[in-house]
């Protein structure tokens, strides 16, 4: 039984932004059972053992800390149309690096998630991002937020 499940499955675009550093890897089992699976059950409309999808689309955006350079700190997976494919993809993520950093590239991950929503092009459905992290983002000035001369 899914807690607070709607009467009928909810069609949505769901992106899991997952920090793929070693620090978060220590908690992926708890994150999987307490956040990923309940989210998938909610949007699937029931237990994950029920086959097939319901029209929801899932993507995964992983991000790392700056110590992964020269490789890219962001990776995308999907789109997936069934919860089982999402769980299989999460199991294959390598949680490495981040030991030399106390922050991670969350800003870049959110920018990538927004680009994924645009690429999916399903504006008629609701869009959701679930952030699974343990490190704060790097400070980044996005423009327009601080008065001129005050940054």
Condensed summary:
This protein is of the alpha/beta class and 151 residues long. 30% of the residues lie in helices and 19% in strands.
What does this molecule look like?
It is a single chain. By secondary structure, the chain is an alpha/beta fold. The chain has one domain (25-132). It contains four helices and four strands, in the order βααββααβ. The protein has helices spanning 22-25, 28-44, 83-92, 106-120, and strands at 12-19, 57-63, 74-80, 126-132. The protein has a four-stranded mixed sheet with strand order 3-2-1-4, with helices on both faces. It is globular and about 45 Å long. The termini are far apart. The mean pLDDT is 84.
Question: What radius of gyration results from the CA coordinates?
Answer: 17 Å
Number of domains: 1
Please tell me what the overall shape is. Answer: globular
Strand content: 15-25%
Please tell me the overall pLDDT.
84
Order of helices and strands: EHHEEHHE
- The SS-based structural class is alpha/beta
Going across the biggest sheet, name each strand in turn.
3-2-1-4
Largest sheet: 4 strands, mixed
Q: Pick out the low-confidence regions.
A: none
The number of E-state strands comes to: 4
Helical residue percent?
A: 25-40%
Query: What is the count of DSSP helices, taking H or I runs of 4+ residues?
Result: 4
Task: Report the end-to-end length measured between terminal Cα atoms.
Answer: 50 Å
